[in-house]
Fold these 3 entries.
Entry 1:
Amino acid sequence: MNLLITGANGQLGSELRLLAPRYSAHTFHFTDVAELDITDEAAVRAFVKANAIDVLINCAAYTAVDKAEANEALCQRLNAEAPALLARAMDEAGGAIIHVSTDYVFDGTAHVPYTEDAPTCPNSVYGRTKLAGEEGVRAACKRSVIVRTAWLYSTFGNNFVKTMLRLGRERDELGVIFDQIGTPTYARDLAAALLAIVERGLVPGTYHFTNEGVTSWYDFTREIHRLAGIKTCRVRPLHTAEYPTPAARPHYSVLDKTKIKQTFALDIPWWQESLAECVAALEA
């Protein structure tokens, strides 16, 4: 098959690029804004047609959650309008799209893991535009897969793990929020899951994927420092109210992964095991 990966220079796109050589039966086309403007419908259609794209994996998004509050128009273009446009192009070509979404489509007031059919209620510009993107993709392409994820990190780009490693070595003390609960996701594990969906037969629908387990940002940080051998920085738990941000975060955004595991026979690693892999790679 011919696969198009948009947003290829981001965390997830970079991990897909690393895994691609293992899937030599497929031809991969990796694009970012320099190679393909995903807001230009004519350019997208032309690329899909010229390269006979069978499956498009959309990793492109506006992900600066706080900046999004002041940049709603740009966020709307990249997170809502562009995915629908990509989905239309794939539907017209008789192909499929896998679109990556977020836990921010939920308001975080639940106390049990969110299933795919749980009511959505985003409370940020980022969350609202990502939900609009999901809706646009579903409406535009019959063979569409939405994969919601959360707390993404990797060896690429800027992310929480890299920031906590840096701050842990720069500071004697660090305050980290303890009352927001979720699950970290190693982008390499998500990339492998997306390719498994392609390999094992794409089944349209909405799915959830994170690593296994549950933690808080505070406990996540403590584990990052433990794995890296950082002992000189005291990590102090903070309430959300003590660290105000422009965008509201879900207090609880654990995602139920039963559906994706059963549909595609996935064995998902525990978050601490995957974090250990990533920290070891970053510290090497």
Entry 2:
Amino acid sequence: MVNFQKLKNIILSNNSFLITTHVNPDADAIGSEIAFYQLLNALGKKSFIINHSETPYNLKFLDVDNVIRQFNLDDHADLFNKVDVLVALDFNRVDRTVSMIKNFQQSKAIKICIDHHQDPERFVDYEFIDTEYSATGEIIFNLISETKIVSLTKEIAEPIYAAIMTDTGSFRFERTTAKLHRKIATLLETGINPTEIYDKIYDQSKFSKIKLLGRALNSVELFADGKIAYMIITQKDFEEFGAIESDTENFVNYNLSIENVVLGLLFIELKNGFKISFRSKGNIPVNKLAAEFGGGGHTNAAGARFFEHKMTEEIINSILSAAKKYVK
């Protein structure tokens, strides 16, 4: 259970905030940041959004006022000590801040985490975490609806809608309930356009992304008697098509569209290390699988990132072998 009154009190009793989210942010991350920023702005608070990663091009429409900044040590290091509160949104492990980790850890500011992922790492002063929520954006919605801290405006509703819509797989995942749809109705009543939001996020892909998707689909292999499907994307693939890491968002889900497949993996070679996305059907806990390799997430959606290891065939095979245990 999230103590919304406590969260409200922290917000009202402080004046300056630095908001951040995880590396390679998705729509829940960016949407939650913008919604929280707009909430603070409505209260007359001073706030900044500083991220390790650049905002993906299909999510920049959420940042209407162009307030999100990519972290630069010379420009932003002092901010971590000047603000009253550091706000970690949509992540629960401090290493997900990557280049900002030392600044975050060493800051004397109050640290809070608002999140919905499992197995949080204790790295903040106050946690507002509940895995029963469909998205971090939904937690922010409830903060507003339960405490009346501000009015729900269109400027706040749009990024919250984007956060929830994407993290529920366009309202088809497990956390999609009647109660959630009533919240969505409240968001729509502010005048936001769900058709436009979906179009901007999913139907305005760059040509490079589509070409990369083709390469990823061509790489699909089956494992464990056809119960596991996996894709591999290399740095060479990125360079060939001029694509970027954020272009791979949702690629892993195509694995689960293959008949009899109940667990899907996507291996992505990065300039520094590699990452893995895990997806599953039913009660297969890929968050536990990801945890075996230092990652985490939800029961059916998780990830792991390696900064100091190369993506070798040996490592891929070891991860596939580990995954096989979960589909027996």
Entry 3:
Amino acid sequence: MANARSEDLIVARFLLVRHGESKVMVDGVVGGPKTCSGLSDRGRAQAERLGSRLASGSETSIEIAYTSPLPRAVETTEIVLSSGSLNLEINVHPDLEEFRLGEADGLTWEEVRTKYDLGNFEQRDPFTPIIPGADSRAGFRHRVAEALSHIADRHRGATIFVGCHGGVISAAMATAFGLGINQWHTELAPVVTSITELEILSSPVRGRRWMCRRYNDSAHLHGTEIDPRDHL
């Protein structure tokens, strides 16, 4: 009998890239659609490093590019893909946006903690938004997984660059590992401009499933003055 794994077909391969350091990160404010103003100088330098890495040919060839609509993700994607021969058309997908915090957009994180009851966040009803106009945890997870699944079906067999956010990558990883929406013992914290590689596979025997090939790869920043791990 042939090994079932040998029958796997790649529906799509994703390179999920978290944006570089943003101005709202530096300012300590919630960076939603009204407030996000793109990358800091340091964030642009981080994106340029990733662009040089991808342009060197050491990575899988990228065929399609998507980005979140938030300026920090768009700017990161533009910088990375403008390097070398990676000048691809960029598709903006609204459902790749970071966890939406509704009316808290533009507040400092200290103001958010003061104004809203965020206690026991992970243990509260995952279907109810804590902040008016915000995502619920369950809704956010569903939004991200559905967006990636639809993109995969639209570009079957392709390697797809996705410029996005830490929350989006965490939601994708939770989907890949089948973590429940009440799971709160596991925390994922991808570094800025890191690469997380996920595949959606399909086979007659095992059906459709997610496979993690790589998580939080920020080798292009190691040993540089823009490595965020040196500032934790």
